[in-house]
Amino acid sequence: MSAENDPAQRVAIGISFGNSYSSIAFTTGDGKAEVIANEDGDRQIPSILSYVSGEELHGGQAKSQLLRNSKNTVAYFRDFLGQEFKSIDPSPCHQSAHPVDHESSIAFKIQDTEEDKENTVTVSEVTTRHLKRLRNSASDYLGKSVNAAVITVPTNFAEAQKTALNKAAKEAGIEVLQFINEPVAAVLAYDARPDAKLADKILVVADLGGTRSDIAVVASRGGIYTFLATIHDYEVSGFVLDQVLIDHFAKEFLKKHKSAGDPRENDRSLAKLKLECEAVKKALSIGTSANFSVESLAGGVDFTSTVNRSRYDLLANKHFTAFARLVTHAVEKAQLDPLDISEIILAGGNSHTPKAASALAYAFPESTTVLAPSTSPTAINPSELSVRGAAIQASLIQEFELEDIEQSTHPMVTVTPHLSHAVGVLCISADESSGIFNPIIDAETPLPVRRTAIIATPREGGDVLIKLAEGLRHIKITKPEPKAKTEKEPSSDDDSDEDSEEEEERREKTWKVGTVLSEAALKGIKKGGKVEVQINISADLAVNAIFREVGGKGGVRGILQGGKTTQNGSA
Amino acid sequence: MTSVQINLPLPVLPQGWAGEKDFKSVGQLSQANDRNIEPVGPHFLAHARRKRHKRTFSEDDR
Ligand SMILES: Nc1ncnc2c1ncn2[C@@H]1O[C@H](COP(=O)(O)OP(=O)(O)OP(=O)(O)O)[C@@H](O)[C@H]1O
Ligand SMILES: [Mg+2]
């Protein structure tokens, strides 16, 4: 391969490779990411391979083989890459080829040739075959041979897993330009929209996938992203949601056909149930009811039924509540308050379910925007967020030398000091107890940074004081006023009294003035004039500020020495 | 980044305030925390370029 590593010869795409589904996308000439459908017309391509008399089936076709050919069907293998057998959870593979311990890695025993014998196929080889199929689909669509990609991975994908994936991709003819973290890909997919405005905010990416859920709290500062906390959970997943419906329909079936036996106790019947229940679950994301229909479900009995969305919501409620709890835990882990979260981006296939979004909206204040198909008409398809982000990143770096990319992603470049408190000005009064702090640069902003603020002045203009300070975010809690007209004792210790309390306590985000940094005087501001403050903070915490009247000449410049840094030695 | 708009007025300069060239430094920023920024997106690339070539924001603007 002579084209290898030659940026000029690259045809790069974005790939999201999940345990359940994979997607491929490319970026068009005008910078828009487009998700590619494979030969079957699927944009969410099951990460499954199946072998029927030596023929390899992939994606949706392989998935249907879970019914009759499960032993030669390999599924849910991504997380096994680069792992040892003793550290994996094989349970997602119960109804497909089982992973086995093989030469300190993991393999599947499948009959993948015409010959009537089982071969040991490593997870690395399975991954290569899967990626080859994705690559071919993309090449067919684009009409040129794809040879490079940005691939998304979960934030807890270990170095050994990345190394294994890199190798498997290489075997598939794909040069991995970069691995990027799934939640950041999701944020990038949103930020790359043409109407997106660059704003400093804290957001959460909540990914409810097929075998796991992953939560990330991300500081977004001037388009640069920093993780403040991540959480991974393997209990709350699409699997348990499917199980809710499996149990529901199995019970319905047993009510009517007791003698046919429990479809959950027979492999073939269970496989049918599972496939149909996943389809029902998807249908309930759009419709308020869905049909279930399986021929010969158990004991040769056909079964059709329907389920309402409200019923599903009720049955699955505890899982959605658990999902919301994961998100609040992640916020706590980041030492933040729900009021600090501007947006929650819902990602992963199960985020199509309206209840996933409403459970989060319920757990967070109204000021938090929940971005999901059911809550926002402009939400991006949660199943496509990762791959879109990957395609955008691919287009940004595809002309770089690999060495350049490696240098830029090295800790020398990425490890960066972040402000521990917001920096801003005091308004109304220069007195720290009565002045109102207004942030100009938020906490957790990476350095160096430059920000500008335009600030109002007293009505008559004149001489003003500009006091720069650190601000400490404070959550102010206001207890509701005891109601005057009520007959009850205000200090009643009766429990039922608290329950009947109509008004909840009010929580709001306020600021306390911390360390004062500097004072500057600007004189003779004209009536109605505004003041522009530009603050530069360097990596060593030196502050360089410029204060001037908007449209005026001159101005004041001030420099604060840095000094206190954590450059050497860890905290 | 667009500038931050602050609609509350700045305080009036107190009588007798004095500072050399109208500026007075009072304190220092608190220690920063070292964190890993994600090497993704156009703004990161600009950051990496500045860092690797030891350029400032205004040099980068030119
Ligand atoms: N429209 C939909 N409505 C509800 N659930 C859906 C929908 N589309 C996909 N899902 C579910 O989403 C899950 C797959 O999500 P996703 O594609 O994000 O998974 P993944 O990243 O491959 O999986 P994993 O978390 O296992 O690595 C499955 O449980 C699937 O049933
Ligand atoms: Mg996933």
UniProtKB/TrEMBL annotation, chain A:
Keywords: ATP-binding, Nucleotide-binding. GO terms for molecular function: ATP binding; ATP-dependent protein folding chaperone. The keyword Magnesium does not apply. It comes from the Eukaryota. Residues 477-511 are annotated as: Disordered. Residues 492-505 have a biased composition (Acidic residues). This is Chaperone protein dnaK. The lineage of its organism: Eukaryota, Fungi, Dikarya, Ascomycota, Pezizomycotina. One of its GO terms (cellular component) is cytosol.
